[in-house]
Amino acid sequence: MFYYNYDLTTSQPLTLRDMLGSDYIDIANKQIKEKIAERAKNPDNMYWSENEGGFTSIRDTQQFYVNKKGNPVIIFNKYEIAPGYMGIQEFEITK
User: Which of 7, 20, 21, 52 has a CA positioned 20 to 30 A from the CA of residue 61?
Assistant: First the structure.
């Protein structure tokens, strides 16, 4: 799955750095790890640990879209950070 994000006022590509600032990787990683820990409290949910190939950090080219609130939503494809039954994983990142 690929997302293309553009600033409609400038017609330039929109990046996570543009939306969250220079510390965007730290901001996103912290919120994603917190949300994974919260979701993992539900016994029906399962995420792979870091040493099993689970989430460690977003990539510089991480896929995301912008939701109606104007926040970036980071996307992980099926099987990327969790078993397939968990489906596509989405994490809204607040500024």
Answer: 52
Coil, helix or strand at residue 82: coil
- Condensed to tens digits (0 to 9), the pLDDT of residues 41-70 reads 999 999 998 888 899 999 988 999 999 999
Read off the tokens for 34.
Answer: 């917190």
The structure tokens listed for 23 are: 């510390």
6-92 placed in CATH 2.60.40.1220: no
Top pLDDT among 89 and 60 is at: 89
Q: Which of 46, 23, 26, 44 is nearest to 36 (CA)?
A: 46
Domain-by-domain residue ranges, the chain?
Answer: 6-92
For residue 20, give the 3-state DSSP assignment. helix
Sign of CA dihedral 19, 23, 25, 26: negative
pTM of the model: 0.92
